[in-house]
Specification:
332 residues; alpha+beta; 11-stranded antiparallel sheet; 11 helices; 13% strand; globular
Amino acid sequence: MKDCEEPSRPLSLDFKGEGYEYFKIWCVNTLLTIITIGIYSAWATVRNNRYFYANLFLDDSSFQYLADPLTILKGRLIAVTCFVFYLVISNFYPIVGVFLALMMFIAIPYLVIRSLAFRNRMTAWRGVQFRFNGGYQDAFVALYVWPLLGVISIGLLYPMTLLKLNRFIAANSAYGTTNFKFHATYKDYGKIFLLIFIGIIIIGLMSVVLLSSTGPEMMLVSLVFYGILFVYAKMAFINLFHNSLRLKNHYFLADLEFNGLFKIYVTNLFLIIVSLGLYLPVAKVRLTKYIVDHINPYALGDFGEFASAEKEKVDALGEELGQVFDFDIGAY
């Protein structure tokens, strides 16, 4: 990226949401969801997403969340109906239940594609919607084949498994008519997995050596160390994903730091426990704000002209959102 001939220009990326503001939305959503026995959850999802999208600004323009609550509700009702139908049939006709489970296994890649397509189409920036162009075969390989190879290889191919999944999602996503590109390699993911594996081995050895003398205290120490590994993995994978992402000549530089992210997680967890869960929405805002503050977009050339050109291309296609059979399956 640094070898590019054109000078790059940093773009502002800011999250302007406030914890107390979102807390009020969260309280109303939770109350109405309970009162309506879950029916309002679709409207709650839309309100939550619209709040976060409307407060996320790229180059001084906010994102938009375009989903209709009724569309989400229909998707969830279909999913719940299918699940209940499967449970009833499996109880009375086990053989038919096995057949239905096989059908669901085959259908999952398709449902994942439709969910990703829905999520992207419901996201817009400067009047241009995002898209998802992934196919069934690629989804099947990313969701089933590579994870199986990861198990067969005793973990050696786990980095490739995550790489293939992230590449499937990123490279098939598009802003308007321009697809993202994903440049991470097996080596990039392998370094992170190796450090995580070494950490797990060290924790395991400490547990075996010290368990007899320290008892339950060692379990607490192990949990702390596993928490440290979790935060490291979260930080490393977020940085790697965004640093490997490009949109035409535009790119990201993510620089999340372990100390800062660990501090956010520890204080959030403590305050959530002390407040009996009421701090949860504020914790979500704090975490989002920290991550966004450490992701820096850069543009090569005029990014405004690029966005305007994409809008013209999309408008020329004449696609109406309502004609597209994309739906939510509860991935939000």
